[in-house]
Amino acid sequence: MDLQKSPRFGSRIVIVAFLLLILNAALLCNGGKTSSFFRKVENNVDMPLDSDVFAIPSGYNAPQQVHITQGDLVGKAVIVSWVTVDEPGSSLVRYWSENSEEKKLAEGELVTYRYFNYTSGFIHHCTVRNLEFNTKYYYEVGLDHTSRQFWFITPPEIGPDVPYTFGLIGDLGQTFDSNMTLTHYELNPRKGQTVLFVGDLSYADDYPNHDNVRWDSWGRFVERSVAYQPWIWTAGNHEIDFAPEIGETTPFKPYTHRYHVPYRASQSTEPFWYSIKRASAYIIVLSSYSAYGKYTPQYQWLEEELPKVNRTETPWLIVLMHSPLYNSYNYHYMEGETMRVLFEPWFVQYKVDVVFAGHVHAYERSERISNVAYNIVNGLCTPVNDLSAPVYITIGDGGNLEGLATNMTEPQPEYSSFREASFGHAIFEIKNRTHAHYSWHRNQDGYAVEADSMWFFNRRWFPLNDSTTHTWN
Ligand SMILES: [Fe+2]
């Protein structure tokens, strides 16, 4: 029998052709996905103050809330911060490298602040400088009374092919979900070496009179990670603490007293915007809640900062901010629009690899798109595919007491590649100058499960299409 002439064979050809057409459409059209993962939505509550994660270390004047961050431009310094409550005590840090018995001392400073009816403990900040790259250091604080010992590992020397793994956490707060997020980050087998934190730390301002006791409890909660690896801080709206009704009119008062950053090293004039280099990455931190219009200090700083980025030295250009520029949830919708209008053309011009933001309590990853053609009269105001543009990732899903953002704009915009209302964290694992593996991990899964992932191709060294859903012409 001649198969070619069989009517059944003919109908099979039609079916196969139809299936190929569907497959083709799936590849050519935007495959943007709204996850169908179902998560029970409950009211989130903060862990009670007597929870073990908030335990006060024992001993007279024992240091608590110990945290570290990068202390200079290149990673040879660390800012060590901690709080003592019984008396001021010593601001010295004793430190020594794993390879040496010689113990050194660094001298820090002490600050305190009052906020309405709250008086802070004695907040110590000490910058430890001239460290060797890629070395494990032990350090001790609380030298006069109860001392406590921790350790950190300095980053490798800056270079274009240096592998390095960043964790991404945002809008963490101090609920049971926050604790799950932190635990999942700690147990993730990809092993983040430094956290890029995209703002909204303690959510103390959700309490009456912004009860700053919740800033202290948050400091004790995250110590188990941030005393051992640096967290790179971004200011969110919950750091503003502007409350004129109770006489508190200095924005960011608790945040700036508790969290120091090395902003002067990048010629910034305020701690809210600055940059650091770490391994093969250049990280620019911006402030959604400081002036950024033309002629403002932040605008001027960024305009001068972007041309300084040498992609031969640090191929990966990463921007952190709190309020996302692209967000298809109904929460905080278009809040990032004014900054987008001002800064997006630069992000495209300087080929930023990825922009991480928080604020929206959910997860979203965009395609590489830009919306920079509009000039008031030409009507060109639709995001378009743009291989020079960053990927925009919203990672505000740390698990704070305000709960999940579940309400999304419909239909999902074409530029939105993946979105899901779940708590979690992400990992950005730089392999070399061309490739980085990115993964998002929801709290409901096992530690190694990647609920969303993407291979990033570097925009300077390998600027090919790296979309997970889009085939572009
Ligand atoms: Fe926020």
Structure commentary:
- With 473 residues, the chain is of the alpha+beta class.
- The chain has a domain at 159-199 and 272-472: Purple Acid Phosphatase, chain A, domain 2 (4-Layer Sandwich), CATH 3.60.21.10.
- Helix content is 16%, strand content 26%.
- The protein has helices at 7-28, 176-187, 213-226, 253-258, 297-305, 337-349; strands at residues 33-34, 64-70, 78-84, 92-97, 104-107, 109-111, 114-115, 118-119, 122-128, 136-141, 148-153, 164-169, 194-197, 231-232, 274-278, 281-285, 316-320, 354-357, 363-370, 384-385, 391-395, 416-420, 424-430, 435-442, 452-457.
- The strands form five sheets. Strands 1, 15, 16, 17, 18, 19, 20, 21 and 22 form a nine-stranded mixed beta sheet that branches. It has a six-stranded mixed beta sheet with strand order 14-13-12-23-24-25, with helices on one face. A four-stranded antiparallel beta sheet has the order 2-3-9-6.
- Strand 15 (274-278) and strand 16 form a beta hairpin.
- The longest helix has 22 residues, at 7-28.
- It is globular, with a radius of gyration of 24 Å.
- It starts with 6 loop residues before the first helix and ends in a 16-residue tail after the last strand.
- Mean pLDDT is 93; it is low at 1-7 and 16-30.
